[in-house]
From TrEMBL:
Pfam families: COMM_domain (PF07258). This is COMM domain-containing protein 3. One of its GO terms (biological process) is sodium ion transport. InterPro entries: COMM (IPR017920), COMMD3 (IPR037355). It comes from the Eukaryota. Residues 127-197 form the COMM domain. Belongs to the COMM domain-containing protein 3 family. The lineage of its organism: Eukaryota, Metazoa, Ecdysozoa, Arthropoda, Hexapoda.
Amino acid sequence: MEPILSTEIMTGLKRMGNPTLVNDELFAKSLHCGVTTITQTDFTTGNLSSIASGLSKGDVVKEGHCALLSLFVESARLDLLPDTLSVFLSSKANWPQTRCRLLTDAYVSSAPKIQARLASVGMHPPHVVNVHWNLNHNIKSSSNEHTASSMVSVQLETEDPSHVKEERMVKFVCSLPELQDMLSKLKEALRQVEHIAHLGNV
């Protein structure tokens, strides 16, 4: 198993691993900045700006910073082994072995913290437990024109499954056509889910 990253992220990784674009000192600073950004809640990205400012390749550093964060998160999510990550970087991003080793060392020391941060985000969206709605009519009249429109006020009462006592109201207003469009999309999504579930039981 290896990280699945977008083309843009892979481009950023390739540039970050290229010694002609990012020298060793800048690479070490960027790596430290990436690890600190993702593991410390009170860290500000101002340090990245100080690293990248005044450089002719400042955009490369910023792009590489984003790519490093994505790589760390995806690798920690998959709980990758350091050897797997090293092979991925050398074969798919053309990193030299010295940089692969520096990154995997940083990954090993920071992976537990990243996984703890990911766990705190939560994996379950709130459940909708009740719906309240009102149909409101807006009427405008004058001597020359008469217009009328209907709007629907919807309140979704949600409950976080990880915190059962925590309730939240999601409120929005839409027109009748917009509400019908949303309902048709929900029905289509339900049909798709039921179809997939049926295929899984076959």
